[in-house]
Amino acid sequence: MSDFITRLKNITGLNIHKEKLYQASLKVDKEKIRKTLLDLKKEGFLQFTTLTCIDWIEEKTFQLVYHLWHREEKLHLKVKIDIDRDAPIVETVSDIYIVAQTYEREVKEMFGVDFKGNKRLIPFILEDWNEIPPMRRDFNTREYVKDMYETEDRTEEIFKPRWKKYD
Fold first, then answer.
1. pLDDT in tens, 26-48
2. Range of 82's domain?
3. For residue 63, what are the CA distances in angstroms to 37, 55, 84, 151?
4. What is the DSSP letter of 97?
């Protein structure tokens, strides 16, 4: 496994970090994501497993993590990029891995990230959604539920320990 990672580092020039037995990661600039994924696909990472997004609200950044699988080497590789939270735009990779189109739609809908070049960024799950994307950390779920369903917040009542006496 480490021989493969060393060979991959030499071929691609990428700084790949082994994390666990069958898991490694690397971080690249967002401008290099397409070239990186193309190079990795040529090296045998033929399966695009998923795309995840992390909202680092304090740093004003979204981190996109592209998960790839190399069947022969049994290696799960995470390719990470950071993008500006205030202008979340990145090039699509759906022409490199067709399945990425669906994951990009989901990340667009849940976090508001725009994937330039993806022609299918149409609503995916949410219907008639007019709020900020619901998976962003600044989305207030309690306020949304209160406004949408005209209910009051009963969190303290529901989660109050029953064995403790209150004044």
1. 999 999 999 999 999 999 999 99
2. 2-159
3. 16, 7, 9, 34
4. S
